[in-house]
Amino acid sequence: MKITSKFAAILCAAALFMTVGCSNGGETSSGSSEPNASGNSGTADVSSASNSETNESGTVSEEKIMDSLNNGIIIDSVSGNVYKNEMNANPISPNIFCADPTAVEYNGRLYVYGTNDQQQAEEGTKNDYAYIKSLVVFSTDDMVNWIYHGRIEVGEIAPWIYNSWAPSIVSRVEDDGLTHFYLYFSNGGSGVGVITSTDPVGPWTDPLGEPLVYQNMPGLENCPAPFDPGVCIDENGVGWLAFGGGTPADGNTMHSKIPKIAKLGKDMLSFDSEFVSIDAPYFFEASELNYIDGVYYYTYCTDWQDHKTGWKEYEGVKVPPACSMAYMTTKTPLDADSWECRGPYFYNAGENADGASGLRWANNHTHFIEYKGVNYIIHHTLLLEELMGGKAGFRSMMADYLPMDKATGDIPITAASKKGVAQIKLVDPYTDNSGALMFTSADIGYDKVNDPAAKSTANGAWIYVRGADFGYGASEFIAEVKGKGRIEVRLDDISSKAAAFVEFDCADYTKIRSDSFAKFDGRNHDIYFVFSGSDIELKSWRFSKGDEQLRPEESIASTDIPYKTLVISGQTEPGPSPSAMLDIPKDGDYSIKSSSFEKDSAIVNLGFINTDTNAKYKVLVRSLTLATENGDVEVPVNKELDPTSSSENGLENGWGGSEVGSLIYGTEECGIFAAKTDITWTNYRLALKVNGEETPFTSITYNVTVSGLELDS
């Protein structure tokens, strides 16, 4: 991207620079990107806003805000490195890998904690979790815009740990009148630790100095991996902890009785009962506990095998799919025989009720919570890594609806979605908001690991905040920034003209205000913050009101973007099979890249769309771009797929009537052919040949034209 500066800013007075670390003009300009009449950006001046703040001594002081420079910096393009788009609320974070969620509500905000896969990603390895010794924290009050609060450095707080994975958190008001947070975590696969705080984002302390649960402790003879804690507090203020993992020595995974539950002591740091086994059928890992209306809900992840075998003893209970989440309930948790198997409630990410979901298969871990009267399930998938084109196993946390009937305890099985959940509250643009608040972003990182500010990593980086309530319009934009450059405010469309901007050259965090704000209609608007260059830090932001009269109310759904998710699924032997997914907002040409597969895999199905008799669109596959070791190879196809038809909804597969050696798509010099296979359950495989030589490929990009698309408003 080209960044130009029409005029250089004059230097600030030395005394001012030493005071605030920023060289910014004090004169207010017309709001254009032109300098003032003198050709300079104005003299340095720290001016006072109408706001005030209380300092540490308790006295009220005026807030110091500097006027924006006006050096005419031009942002002529924006970053395209966006992986979570503006149409989907999932994953929670657009730039942090994290997993195994847990959550707690405090002062009207929902705080979500998870395993810090990002720490492993920074090591440049596949995700074997070995380097993870921290947890991450996010919070929201609207379920779609999330603040990243940074890391909890468990390895520094409790240096005795092996790792810190899969947290579970509860809070309780103690005798000192403060809310205490108890955060339990897996000490690798060897046990459970606990850290505590009186604030949901810390600081945290290690009250025990050792694990609460450890391998081979008395009572854990058949619990080889006592990890993945799940904690809850009942209506009497009593704490309960469940945990467990591993494979039984006798191989009886249907009735391993490996997971355990125990009553916690009053201090939440000890046990007040023996460990009781829970007979969770086909148990694998991912224990979690909830206490809802007098009922204890134990949830866990089933293993990967076929669960139909032996399931007759649970007549009337749905068979859990492979690596799905299942649950059990009781009113007496220490009575092992009282636990009732209720069946599965959440598919693995790789499937849904229609079959293949378009997401990759992964391990599974969930937490469900009621927030603002709505039941949500927080979980993880590999979605963010998929969107980035990686395949090292780094996970991302997601939020979807949990269709629970609390009166009966029934939870019908549901699945992960890219769309996620709806915004339940509009952002207040007139209060100080964290720079780390975002729905999504492009080329944005963070300045540090604790209480971070957002930091641009490239020219044209941007942050998107969905659904702000500009009931009183806006007269100016105020941003707390560090670095050198320009941040523009663009409303609703990233390609729109800037409604306001701030320019600055600050060595320390400084509040800068725009000299004006463009007029705009309406009340509810999405906000883009666009950065001119890298290494610009945004710590906080707000807008000043521009109207005296409140604008007419608008629906919170007015910022939603309707679309159709198109999933094309292939099949390889062995798997994992490729799948490609894209959200389509309108008719047009699109390229949809599949997940990667091994180059030695046999391709037995080039791709199909799940049948949908109500579909209102057609897909013309113009060509396939195949990724080979020597570069991409494009093969013309020109086949229309009809999602309403069970026979015309896919490309060639190995069950068709083609003869081995015949050309399927393309040309004799470069095409896809029916090839001989040793696989007994198909007639042939699909192979790419270039100049007569078979050429392996590891992904498929479907170049398609979508037409006739009708979307529900």
What's the helix and strand layout?
Blueprint: E1 3-4, H1 14-20, E2 46-54, E3 60-67, E4 74-75, E5 99-106, E6 109-115, H2 117-121, E7 135-140, E8 146-152, H3 154-157, E9 165-173, E10 179-186, E11 191-197, E12 213-214, E13 230-233, E14 239-243, E15 260-263, E16 276-277, E17 283-292, E18 295-302, E19 325-330, E20 340-346, E21 351-352, E22 355-356, E23 366-371, E24 374-381, H4 383-388, E25 396-401, E26 433-434, E27 437-438, E28 440-442, E29 444-446, E30 454-456, E31 462-469, E32 476-491, E33 500-513, E34 524-531, E35 537-544, E36 564-573, E37 579-584, E38 588-593, E39 602-608, E40 618-628, E41 631-641, E42 663-666, E43 670-675, E44 685-690, E45 693-694, E46 700-707
Parallel strand pairs: 3-33
Antiparallel strand pairs: 1-4, 2-3, 5-6, 6-7, 7-8, 8-27, 9-10, 10-11, 11-12, 13-14, 14-15, 15-16, 17-18, 18-19, 19-20, 21-22, 23-24, 24-25, 26-35, 28-31, 29-30, 30-35, 31-34, 32-33, 32-34, 32-35, 36-37, 36-39, 38-46, 40-41, 40-46, 42-43, 43-44, 44-45
